[in-house]
Amino acid sequence: MKKKLLALAVLAFGAVAVQADTLAKVKASGAITMGVRDSSGALSYTLGDGKYAGYHVEICHRIIENVEKAAGRKLEVKYQSVTSQNRIPLVQNGTVDIECGSTTNNAARQKDVSFVSTTYVEEVRIAVKANSGITSIAQLNGKNVATTTGTTSVQLLRRHERANGVDFKEVFGKDHADSFLLLESGRADAFVMDGSILAGNIANSKNPADYRIVGEVLNVEPIAIMIRKDDPAFKKVADDTVAALARSGELAKLYDKWFLQPIPPKNARVGLALSDATKAAWASPNDKPAEEYNKK
């Protein structure tokens, strides 16, 4: 019985090891699955009819081009819509090979997955209706604050030094579009989330002028493409791709394309200027977690 259990354990370990070798996996299958988001601002969003676009989606396609060279074959690219709740498990279990959404790289998540070198550094902010009169955290007292299930934004708000004594109620959207709808419909007075996601949802709303991004910066977070843990060969291809895009100036061009120019489907501009923190991440590519960015 012990021998049988040992054999099963070895087989199970072997299956995990094979699964973690993404280059071998996609070479054998001829396909690679990209995790994408339906409403993560200009980083990753749906165009409908199974089509996706965005800054991280395009960077992932550049990575996949180099994965094809490493695998020695053309790959079918499949899209898998993911949410804040299921994105990490779907990467871990092999359903998704490369997650190209809006995931914060932090120390807790690094225990479960790996991250490609940072491609965007985010500031967590608050969106409100322009006529609300809300301009700071202190004015959220007694208000309903929307956030997306599976994200850390409200926890960041509660931990902020200026939130002491501020009593607000959390209301949850199942995804970012749903959270913005809570604000749009008046069921929430504010929506706390990554600035790019707030700006993207505002840009694509019916009346963008009706909304403002306000208040103190709650946190600075490196946003990165996510892959399986302990997969050095795949990570090297992805990291090398990002580093090459940064050196050539292509990342800057992609940023301009997705954040400063009109983007489909409504040809609206997100209008987020390139931050110094993002420039610094490109100048010295790394996969440092958020905790490194917020040391005091």
Concise overview:
The chain is α/β, with parallel strands linked by helices. The protein is built from 12 helices and 13 strands.
Description:
The protein is of the alpha/beta class and 296 residues long. 40% of the residues lie in helices and 23% in strands. It has helices at 2-20, 22-29, 55-71, 87-92, 107-110, 153-159, 176-184, 195-203, 232-248, 250-260, 276-283, 290-293; strands at 31-36, 39-40, 44-48, 51-53, 76-81, 98-99, 113-115, 120-129, 144-148, 169-173, 190-194, 211-223, 226-228. A hairpin with a 3-residue loop joins strand 2 (39-40) and strand 3. The longest helix has 19 residues, at 2-20. The radius of gyration is 20 Å and the shape is globular.
Write the topology of this structure.
Elements: H1 2-20, H2 22-29, E1 31-36, E2 39-40, E3 44-48, E4 51-53, H3 55-71, E5 76-81, H4 87-92, E6 98-99, H5 107-110, E7 113-115, E8 120-129, E9 144-148, H6 153-159, E10 169-173, H7 176-184, E11 190-194, H8 195-203, E12 211-223, E13 226-228, H9 232-248, H10 250-260, H11 276-283, H12 290-293
Parallel strand pairs: 1-5, 1-6, 9-10, 9-11
Antiparallel strand pairs: 2-3, 3-4, 7-13, 8-11, 8-12
Helix pairs in contact: 2-3, 3-9
The secondary-structure class comes to alpha/beta
The CATH superfamily label of the largest domain reads Periplasmic binding protein-like II
The CATH level-2 architecture of the largest domain is identified as 3-Layer(aba) Sandwich
Pattern of helices and strands: HHEEEEHEHEHEEEHEHEHEEHHHH
CATH C-level category of the largest domain: Alpha Beta
The number of distinct β-strands equals 13
The helix fraction, in percent, is 40-55%
Total number of helical segments? 12
Calculate the mean pLDDT score and round it.
91
Query: What would the CATH topology of the largest domain be?
Result: D-Maltodextrin-Binding Protein, domain 2
Beta percentage is: 15-25%
